[in-house]
Amino acid sequence: MNESGSNDQGGAGSASVWRWLHGPRKFIAASFSLAYWIIGGFLFVLAGLVCVPLLPGDKSRAIGQWLLQGVFRVFLILLRILRVLKVEYHGLEKLQNITGGYIVAPNHPAMWDAVCIIPRIHGLRCILKASLMHNPILVGGATLAGFIPNKPVHKMLLRSIEALRQGDRLLFFPEGTRTRKKEGLVNPFQGGIGIIAAQSGAPVWPVFIETDGDYLSKGWPVWRLQDPCIQVRITVGEPLACDADESAQHFVKRLEETFIEALGKK
Predict the structure, then answer these.
(1) Higher pLDDT, 154 or 82
(2) Which pTM value belongs to this model?
(3) CATH of the domain at 86
């Protein structure tokens, strides 16, 4: 009886210590993340100034992608140590040793989705919001890694189709922005991915992202960390291809239904 009481007291004491540490932990995590991105962004600008003028485009792009993978991988490790985020991956082996271009198409529940995916798939070029190319923290890494801004739309489509025909791999968020809760499981998918899939003939690999928290979702302030540690599960589905007699619009609808069905079962 006394032993049980002692264990209960020990558990309560541990919980109290953890609650006491929660405030400093949030401050350390937020401060570290901000400093990490500012310093990293500056270093990527410097790397771009050196690599882009001196190396061919594919060589400098490969270096940028390699550096970005390393930066994101270390960042995720540190977030896990600080008990901010833990990511589980399932089915990534499907994407190993695939030749030719393909599209990785995840849903977009939170701001750090690309950070979670890029370190695990070699050579990804991301389609990102054009406004982010003016962000001083992100522009260096995005430019060096060969990311493609989503505007003007016709240029994005042409560059994406050309990249896939050359065997590149694209990271494309079909929702176009982070998921809005009022839309349901996903936002309505944008038509661009259908045009790219139809014109390039590249397969589209759906990637289902699930999270048990709302941190960094649409409208969530960066400085409001959640507790406990956020759990993220990333699962690779089966590839879809746009059939020869299928319209781009129909393919987009079929892809969206794949996500609704898969995420609705979770």
Answers:
(1) 154
(2) 0.84
(3) 3.40.1130
